[in-house]
Specification:
heterodimer, A: six-stranded mixed β-sheet, 9 strands, B: alpha/beta, Rossmann fold, six-stranded mixed β-sheet, three-stranded antiparallel β-sheet, 4 helices, 22% helix
Chain lengths: 186, 185
Amino acid sequence: MQEYLEFIDEILYDQAAIEKRVRELGEQISKDYAGQDLLVVCLLRGGITFSADLTRFISISHELDCMSLSSYGVGHYASSGNVRVNLDLMTNIEGRHVLLVEDIVDSGRTLAHVLMMLKTRDPQSVKVCVLLDKKMRREVPVYADYVGFDVPDKYIFGYGIDIDEHFRHLPFIATADLSKYKKPAD
Amino acid sequence: MQDYNDILAEVLIDENTLQNRVRELAEEINRDYAGEEILLICILRGALPFLVDLMRHVRVPNAIDCMAVSSYGEGARESTGNVRMTLDLKTNIEGRHVILVEDIVDSGRTIAHVLEMLHTRNPKSLKVCALLDKESRREIQVPIDYRGFSIANKFVFGYGLDLDEYYRNLRFVGVVDLERYQGSN
């Protein structure tokens, strides 16, 4: 396994900057849903770090559930857009306020499909909170209600986001120089 | 939903104590697996904050995966002990060093079944890292290789542990005052 120092391009957001922004989002969400009953949905696996930290800054009582999705056809996320549910919600969202928490949105296809699917279950509301928004990659008109940071169209890792399943644990968000990155042999 | 302050009997483990211990566990893992690569498995949903805090201190090369299990027969976890995997691993664990990350070990039945099941896939090693250990409730022997805290048989919540699905986000582990808790409905 390569050390990330060998291929890191730059740190976009360090631990302190992330924590500050996550706190702001948590406070905003607490304000917006004051007096309401909220269900936070963590999209696995990229969203786990963000949702664990975000929910700690949400001061209103809320539930946490998880969902795991993949696309049909490996590596064809962008082309098909149809989404397969590997782990569905335990919670019935009918009549509930739902907040989807995602690490990053780029084409928006996955997110658009999940939103469509969840709306068939008649929630009272569904909103989206993403840590990173790669707006220039958007292919479908879907937007997040809460955005941590707008990021450039670069290869990003850390804070829950992996490169070939590694480096999710890093406490910062960085860009990778793929010309220096060596794919691990399996 | 009640504010947690209304149902909190006592803070059992405060945020500082938790964070320090989580860091110590990660340091132990760093020492034990120096030169190796590990797979950390988060057992959903309770272990989520623990895993996220733990992995931030892990320095050996690592991958993260998630697993969700439920027991057959609602509320019958302790009687049957058989476990239904509702979300299986994406990772093939054959030949890998695996650490199961759990929020709490109670009767031990669920974790024992998960371990048995995962052993059939021939990992190189398989260990358990549990934040809380309610030893007095143990019904079946389970090896806990990394233990955060041994706790008494009290109804605890916070830091991943829920009370009717709420309060997982609290930064401490607290004891519920059941007389004041009104339930979710």
